Structure formats: C-alpha cells, structure tokens
Amino acid sequence: MALAALLSGCAATQGQGGDPRDPLEGFNRGVYKFNDTVDRHVLKPVAQGYVDVVPQPVRSCVSNVFSNLDDVWSAANSFLQNRAPDGINTVLRVLFNSTVGVFGCFDVASANNAPRIHADFGQTLGVWGLGPGPYLVLPLLGPSTIRDASGTAVDFYADPVSIGNLVDDVPVRNSLYGLRAVDTRAKLLQVGNLLNDVALDPYTFTRDAYLQRRDSLVRGARPGNGGDEALPDYSLPDYDDPDDAKPAAGNSR
User: Fold this and answer.
1) Is 240:59 a contact under the CB 8 Å cutoff?
2) Range of the domain at 223
3) Which residues in 197-227 are b (16+ Cβ under 10 Å) and which e?
4) How many domains does the chain have?
5) H-type helices in 44-160, by residue range?
6) How many whole angstroms from its chain centre is CA 240?
7) What is the average pLDDT across 205-210?
8) Full-model pTM
9) In a domain, 29, yes or no
10) Which one of 42, 67, 69, 82 is separated from 108 by 20 to 30 angstroms, measured CA to CA?
11) Is 1 inside any structural domain?
C-alpha cells in the first residue's frame, strides 16, 4: 500500500468525505484500519526479522525468482492488450532469466537493458474499455477498485504458483505464498516509514496515488496513447540495495 502511494509522486491529503471516486469511504477506512493493524503487529515484524536474518544475496534471489514467475502472466496480459512487442520482449526476458539467470535467481535481463514490463488483468480490462468503478480497499491486499478486484481474482487463478499450475503440494504452495508475501513486505519497510512521515492522512494519500497510477497504466497501454512504447517498470524496487534505498523525485518506480 505504501509503494502505491509513492509511485504517483503526489501527496494529496484531502479530508474524509465527498470524493466521487470513493463512495465506499466509510467501509474502506475500516478495512484500511484493519490492514494497518495486521501490518503493524504481524507483517512488518516478520518482514523485519526476514531482513535481519536472511542475507541480502539470498533475498535478492528470492525476489528475482518470484518476479520471473510474475513475468509469465505479464507477457500474457501484454498480448491480451494488443501489445505484441511488449509480450514478445517479456517472453524473451523470462527465457533469458530462466536459463542464464539460473531459474530467475539473477535478473540478467535487466542488467542487459531489458526492463521489466508489468501487466495484469485489471489493466487489461481497462485497456478494453471497462471503467475502474468505485475505489475499494481489500482485506490484506490493500487498495483496489471494483474492476481491479475482479482482475486480481483472475491474476490469482493464473498465478504460476497457484492451484493446478506449478505446485500441486498444498503445504509447499502455501509456503511459497507466505514467502512471497514476506518478501514483498520486506521491500516496503523503508517506504512505509516514509509514507507515515509525509502524509497527513495516509488513507487519502494512498487512495489518490493508487488511482492515479492505475489510470496512468491503463492510458499508457491503450493504442494511440503512447502504446507503441514500453510501459514504465512498476515492479517493486529492492530497498535492501543502498542504491535503491531512497527513490529520487520523479522516479517512476
């Protein structure tokens, strides 16, 4: 949730009530508070322990492997969005990282100027004309919209780690889900601290930033709106890396 706020570079902090994009604000704030409580008391401490105990090269390998798996679905969505060049580039990226990069442990594609192009099914629905609908905060998953929540369900089903795909053993699969959640939260440790420092109202800051980012992703993927060029890399930066610890102003990541 904190990363979504920073990606837009906009610190809108309007008060509660009246935003037409957020007719469910009362409900959403309740879910946001629940998520924040779970994060403070469970997710953040676990992620901090993960960072303290697991060496950085191992954490980078874990992140790269999951990102490589995510690229498979990103490639499919690029094709669904009629962005064949991005889809082909992402397929080649997966093949390169899966072989030379040792099953994705090393992101050799990015090191050779082949940036990651993220695409999901909620974005695909938007490209084909489906509006976002009301803003919606999902339990544990965070900011979304009615459209993106529907896309998230499809994303989950198509996840290479999910049922019927890569892993059939339920305990192993659930362990992978847990590891990915901890890895994702670990990347956001410093970002979460920054959000609390700069936002008068973290809820509205996160909401406005998320909606702006998603609108930018959808508009950028539509033909005639910059669709001939690769979209920016909106994947999570590695905040364990000192070079990435403080994102520069204006950085799309």
Assistant:
1) yes
2) 42-241
3) eebeebbbbbbbbbbbbbebbbebbbeeeeb
4) 1
5) 44-53, 56-80, 84-99, 108-111, 121-127, 146-158
6) 17
7) 93
8) 0.77
9) no
10) 82
11) no
